[in-house]
Amino acid sequence: MTDLLDRLRTAVGTDHVLTDAGDVSAYVVDWTGVHEGRALAVVRPGTTSEVAAVVAACHEAGVAIVPQGGNTGLVGGGVPDASGEQVVLSLGRMRTIREVDPVAGTITVDAGVVLADVQAVAEQAGRLFPMSLGSEGSCTIGGNLATNAGGTAVLRYGMTRELVLGLEVVLPDGRVWDGLRGLRKDNTGYDLTQLFVGSEGTLGVITGAVLRLFPATPRHATAWVAVPSVEAAVSLLGLAQQHAGAHLSTFEIANRQALDLVLAHLPGASDPLAEPTDWYVLVELAAAENDGGLDDALEAILSAAVEADLASDAAIAGSPAQRSSLWALREGISEAQKVEGATLKHDVTLPITRLAEWAAAMGPQLDAVLPGIRPVTYGHVGDGNLHYNLSAAVGADDDLRAAAADLSTAIYDSVAAADGSISAEHGLGRTKAAAGASYKSAVEVDLMRAVKRALDPDGLMNPGVLLPPT
Amino acid sequence: MTDLLDRLRTAVGTDHVLTDAGDVSAYVVDWTGVHEGRALAVVRPGTTSEVAAVVAACHEAGVAIVPQGGNTGLVGGGVPDASGEQVVLSLGRMRTIREVDPVAGTITVDAGVVLADVQAVAEQAGRLFPMSLGSEGSCTIGGNLATNAGGTAVLRYGMTRELVLGLEVVLPDGRVWDGLRGLRKDNTGYDLTQLFVGSEGTLGVITGAVLRLFPATPRHATAWVAVPSVEAAVSLLGLAQQHAGAHLSTFEIANRQALDLVLAHLPGASDPLAEPTDWYVLVELAAAENDGGLDDALEAILSAAVEADLASDAAIAGSPAQRSSLWALREGISEAQKVEGATLKHDVTLPITRLAEWAAAMGPQLDAVLPGIRPVTYGHVGDGNLHYNLSAAVGADDDLRAAAADLSTAIYDSVAAADGSISAEHGLGRTKAAAGASYKSAVEVDLMRAVKRALDPDGLMNPGVLLPPT
Hints:
By secondary structure, the first copy, chain A, is of the alpha+beta class. Chain A folds into four domains: 2-90, 2-Layer Sandwich (Uridine Diphospho-n-acetylenolpyruvylglucosamine Reductase, domain 2), CATH 3.30.43.10; 97-215, 2-Layer Sandwich (Uridine Diphospho-n-acetylenolpyruvylglucosamine Reductase, domain 3); 219-334, Alpha-Beta Plaits, CATH 3.30.70.2190; 341-417, Alpha-Beta Plaits (2-Layer Sandwich). In chain A, 37% of the residues lie in helices and 20% in strands. In chain A, the strands form four sheets. In chain A, strands 15-12-14-13-17-18-16 form a seven-stranded antiparallel β-sheet, with helices on both faces. Chains A, B: Keywords: FAD, Flavoprotein, Oxidoreductase. Chains A, B: GO terms for molecular function: FAD binding; oxidoreductase activity. Chains A, B: Its cofactor is FAD.
């Protein structure tokens, strides 16, 4: 391995091959703290050619690679295993915005550019890059692409795979595929871009991307709405689509437990409504400078909702500051739950017509496994996607950890039986690789393994992630 | 082969295995008439199980399969080669609408359902299936998916791959992959659906699909606009996006030559504007029942356009009948050009910022090859996509046919040099398989061949289509 380390140092410079435990520590444990591994080295190339040299060297040495972006993943997909034999390839130094073209509606970036920086550059160019998620201040575009990230703008703009036009990828043998096209239409063969998006670093290393920009939507109308049930929230979504059509940008749900944690732990947070209720929806319409009627449309939605008993009360943002404070209630949940104590996270999709029934049945079933358990439920109801995260009763974190496998299995079995997905946004990573395969047909797992073998015949790209070891 | 034919007859019934020349003739020649092949047999299964039995039988016999939908393709991707050794597998009998769920916004269909029937069923359910193209009365969803079809709604709703949530596919060995999920979010592994979309029947046979439905947009504002140049059209697009934002649904271009052919050959067609000009744009805004302001937005766009010298005149549709007659001018071009005589079709994308320069340079270059040539140019300028179709001078059709290869090569070389695509919508088929590979890097062709080998190791699915023979 000394030979390999020497070659890596030659490729990227001695300063960018980390092997000391102190230097390496931030790269081998994930955001949740659940996955902690060991690394042969952490390598930090600064250019696509350097990435190619690193991958070629590892390929020749038969050493496995774990690509890593902002290390904000929640399923252990970007950290090494416990063997100490894997190289972590961090894209964090590749932060160049290569080109912005507001007329074509494209931005071309290095994989290591932080999502918030892409948003900011787009805004400076008078355009919108719509992807938005909790970790946007530190997650990288390469990681967003590798995991097909979701977030709060999926309802209107789609997942990451719908926001990308072309990729640059270093293949498992070190060759570079230059697929950096900015075309909306290109029907000249298999869609390799879509194959790499969501592949979680198991088919190659994404080093650059051409992303789509959209017309800016500086006008907003935003409300925090009290709703009696998940069923009412789904019906309210239908109303909002009918009244606001193409301007509907956000439709997020949270239960009272989630709001309670935010009110308890987020400095400055306050309940915008007088009476507590079981469920809340954050709804937002957004439009370009010259579109009108957003406030009228929002009021029409809310009036119709109250009349149909789909809402009991609502707070409408009257200023940008009020808008921010309503959004903070939704965006603060994950952090607030972390402050509260241990969290068992799930990220599931249900067919939207089965969402209410599923959520109603799940609570009592989990309470039978661990009495007093608190489902802190929130997410993107417009996509059928709930972050169904569990907190224990106060003081019972150890019981939660002990029951974790049983609780997750109960949830996944129930999701699979309802034709849902056990990972809506977060991917499979190491945490769910085995579970993912277990809920799929043998034919589907065979197809995935055939794709993996075709592109990475030596199995050196992020082994154990996305697909379980054979 | 007698054994195989017997087995096919057992699988689908004697009536549905066609071998007589008269019965087979409609299945072995494509819409353009350019590609005419021969078939061992045409097999017409009625169910997914029957498709699986047909594919398994051919696989065991080592006989190649050509899947065919409505046979409306323009690049020879759905007709057999000249060997007489291939089986045409027609999906035309599989026409069941399996399920419509307006709340979830999904429709599940057999592959052989005609596109117009999907549109109609969606409309009956109060929803919109937005895909729209010239052949919608006879093309099938399976063919749309296999070729990643485009059309006039791509600007707002995207290509076919953005309209599909799940697929059912019979694999090259006869196994069935059931990926019929209706979830907007499902990050549990490689996106196999996107791999099959656009694969032109070379990886398997699509037998069913879950498609996305959208809120209906029964309100329209439509105009036929005279513009001085392609450059002005591109600037007008920017204006339209700024004023109409999310409601902009159509932005189509046509040159005067295209309009002249429609006026000459389409019964009842008339020029809606008093003075002729070089270029025209069909612009349409569309919204849900409760969205307002479309007429105001369209007038604002047109006023701003006239003020900025981006438009000289415009006809606004004042009734549904007038809207239909403006659309007929755009939709009649392809048929009118066929009536006029021989047509050499090209379907190219340019980066939108290079579109005007490219179109301006191309005309004189082609005239040097064949004096008097008429570029009949129209297409989806919002996507950078032109149907750059050539008619000869009157009476010179034979000269056009003789110069066809030189003309196409000149166009493709120029498109490739400008970072465009030689096939925006139509796919590669047999016509462009070799050209497609010749403009790609060796790395990209290698990747595509690796995918092909992984899923179809015996090379029996539509050989010679999409990738040239090795």
